[in-house]
Design brief:
- By secondary structure, the chain is α/β, with parallel strands linked by helices.
- The chain has a five-stranded parallel beta sheet, sandwiched between helices. The chain has a five-stranded parallel beta sheet with strand order 7-10-13-6-14. A two-stranded antiparallel sheet has the order 8-9.
- The longest helix is centred in the first third of the chain and has 30 residues, at 116-145.
- The chain contains 19 helices and 16 strands.
- Helix content is 46%, strand content 14%.
- It has helices at residues 16-27, 39-48, 68-80, 95-103, 116-145, 162-171, 188-197, 219-224, 241-244, 260-272, 298-303, 309-315, 329-346, 356-364, 370-384, 392-395, 414-428, 433-440, 444-453; strands at 8-12, 32-36, 53-57, 86-90, 108-111, 178-181, 206-210, 225-226, 238-239, 249-253, 274-276, 283-285, 289-294, 318-321, 353-354, 389-390.
- Residues 1-5, 147-152 and 401-407 have low confidence and may be disordered.
- Helix 1 (16-27) links the parallel strand 1 (8-12) and strand 2.
- The two termini are 46 Å apart.
């Protein structure tokens, strides 16, 4: 269990002596307790702070013994914090009141006067419950967002990559924000993961977010999380990426494709290192290392009024530029062999190898989709190969045709035409995915799915 000093407990009771006695009992065990004397203050504290458990009295006036005040407070706590363990306390205990409290969401019942050993035993149980719930919520969100370690098997033997590797080595263990630039498919996400693995945060989460693929309506919820009831579809509390990346690395990919309206929200969180879940006024600290990536020229985006200058300054403490694959010819063969090995194992096709002509063709090809295109090309080659040697036909590469004029649409499949049109539109839009998506009449998320499919 985490250090008890980090676990805050809320106590609500109208009797100052009771508050003092419980506070001292908890303090002797190293727990931090916040004391309030009425339901309104209890709710206010819960809105402002994060508690591991709460102990609340059922009656707050000398002339009442019904427990209605406490039961009403319990219901309001449940609306704000459905998972917060709550223990109810009263000197007027009865079976009916206890049952009603449990029905309304109480986790346990403490009768006054209490025995300190029982009090502490109840608190320990509720703290363990709180930790289990938080861990379950975190694992659920991690399972949804975490991906296998993309930095494993990292290949960079070319001369063009030496300055990149040297810069990574010098900055990886710092907390400085890093901006990674480069064409689509050059491996910006792999480099971000490599930086994380070489830092002191390697044992903590690496959380990746495709900023261009987040619909406007759920931007804050995705990044900062939300509480139950914050909006129509918020049926349960949800941890956002900022919180999920605690003590680790937060990687914001395709950051130039963020709508300008959302950039201010991101900037505020990065400047203050604080954020709130949607629907909550409780402020949380952001302590993750920030790495961002883009294929766009951010200064040009600033000049065009599509990107905030102050956000650019916040992001680019260190800039790492990745060369395209056509400038890393020495890496093409080892990368190709790595992909061949991966897909041969995946599709249970042993003994595959490249012909000398296939290797020469790959080394001379322009690879407009870079490493991602090479990856997709070799998966297709392994799947379609009917013999052990993969030759030029199995690669399915056309003559270097970055120029649209040299493409013969009549000879292309529907998928090849679509990939060609997307590549051409991206080129015409200067690599700006948002502009290309609008020109093609596609939503951002649909456009990104197609880019991923075709290795662009």
């Amino acid at each position: 269990m985490p250090n008890t000093a980090t676990q805050r407990i809320l106590i609500a009771d109208d009797n100052k002596d009771v508050l003092q006695a419980i506070r001292l009992a908890l303090k002797s065990e190293g727990y931090q307790a916040d004391c309030v004397s009425n339901p309104a203050d209890a709710l206010k504290r819960i809105e402002q702070n994060e508690y591991a458990t709460a102990l609340i009295d059922l009656n707050y006036h000398l002339d009442t013994t019904s427990g209605k005040e406490g039961i009403e407070l319990l219901g309001k706590i449940r609306e704000k914090e459905p998972d917060l363990p709550v223990v109810v306390m009263t000197a007027w205990a009865s079976i009916d009141v206890a049952v009603e409290c449990m029905r309304n969401g109480a986790n346990d019942f403490l009768q006054k006067p209490w025995d300190d050993e029982r009090l502490l035993a109840i608190v320990r149980t509720q703290l363990r419950l709180n930790q289990a719930q938080l861990q379950s919520q975190r694992l659920k969100e991690e399972n949804r967002t975490l991906r296998p370690n993309k930095a494993s098997g990292f290949i960079a033997q070319s001369r063009a990559m030496r300055p990149v590797l040297e810069l990574i080595e010098s900055v990886a263990d710092s907390d400085a924000s890093i901006l990674i630039t480069g064409e689509n498919g050059t491996g910006k996400g792999v480099i971000a993961n490599l930086i994380h693995q070489q830092s002191g945060k390697a044992d903590h989460p690496f959380i990746s977010v495709n900023m261009g693929g987040i619909p406007d309506g759920v931007f804050e919820s995705e990044l900062f999380g939300h509480v139950k009831g914050a909006f129509t579809d918020a049926k349960e509390n949800r941890i956002g990426r900022f919180e999920l990346a605690a003590s680790g690395t937060l990687f914001l990919d395709e950051v130039a494709n963020m709508p300008i309206a959302q950039q201010q929200k991101l900037l505020r969180a990065l400047e203050t290192r604080e954020f709130e879940r949607v629907g909550s006024s409780r402020t949380q600290k952001f302590d993750a290392r920030l790495v961002v990536a883009t294929n766009a020229d951010l200064q040009a985006e600033v000049d065009a009024g599509r990107f905030r200058m102050d956000l650019l300054y916040r992001l680019n403490t260190i800039t790492i530029h990745l060369p395209p694959l056509r400038e890393r010819v020495e890496d093409i063969e080892p990368l190709a062999n790595s992909f061949l090995k991966k897909y041969s194992k995946k599709y249970r096709k042993s003994g595959l190898a490249f012909s000398a002509t296939a290797l020469d063709t790959m080394k001379s090809y322009e690879w407009p989709g870079n490493i991602r295109e090479l990856d997709h090309c070799l998966e297709r080659a392994v799947l379609t190969s009917r013999k052990e040697e993969i030759g030029v036909p199995e690669l399915g590469l056309r003559a270097n045709t970055a120029s649209p004029a040299s493409s013969n649409l009549d000879d292309m499949s529907l998928e090849e035409v679509e990939a060609y049109l997307i590549r051409r539109t991206l080129s015409r839009c200067g690599g700006k995915a948002n502009d290309a998506a609008k020109e093609l009449g596609l939503s951002r998320s649909a456009f990104y799915r197609r880019m991923q499919r075709y290795g662009l």
